[in-house]
Amino acid sequence: MKYSIIGFGQVGKNLALKLGSNNLLDFVYVRNFELARTQAEQIGFPPQFLTSDLNQVFASEVVIIAISDNQISSLIEDISNVLHSESIYRVIFHTSGLMNSDIFSKINNNHTSFFAAHPIQTFFSNSHNLLNNIYWGIDSGNTNPKLIKNIITELDGKPYFFDEKVKNNRALYHLMCVATSNFSVATIEFAKILAQEIGISDKRILSKLLEQTTQNIIMNINSDTMPLTGPFARNDYDAIEKYSDSLKSNQNLMDIFENYKQAITLIMENKFQSNK
Questions:
Q1: pTM above 0.90?
Q2: CATH architecture, domain 3-167
């Protein structure tokens, strides 16, 4: 199958690099062509794949919508106009983590299949390898699951099909992903700020600690075991009090720590209640 992409943000760029490297890409639709061409050159992506003609995109068998959520509704109005009298079969899916496939219900075309596929990955950098072997959260819409599996496989990924409970709780699903990525990044940033406070400029001393902690989490990802160590795991209140004392001169850091302390306590209590 041949693919086109609508959008050239972080997700769109990585999809473009992946599909380009797999020789499966037709076009990438962009609204600001000059800006997109500059960005393409910066990441080593051939600008000849870029287009500002929406009709070119819909010559492809599969069209991927990779734009921000607040732009999808207006885009679907444009798509509906383009496909109004089309009789060519194609598949369209969006990559939003928050939105289901029912947003496509506005498009009245019996020759088009729709679904939603959220790449469960963080896109801070740009590389054709970033999509390798990741899970995609799937709301299958009106598309045959076997076809969806083939599409995700061509993207070198693995589909995870949502049941009705997940589809009805997309905000919680996306928060789960945000907690895994954004909250983790924020925690390490807090550690880096503390390092700076005491004059440690080379934060690489934390690398192995972070690496092993991540491995512990992954090894226990489907387990009831919470791989927590240190003073919070052993209820060492004296040590925890010393942490609070060390931050008294910096209210901002004290507030962050107190929030973390409360969060860890509540999570541990929730874990204990769940395991009863």
A1: yes
A2: 3-Layer(aba) Sandwich (3.40)
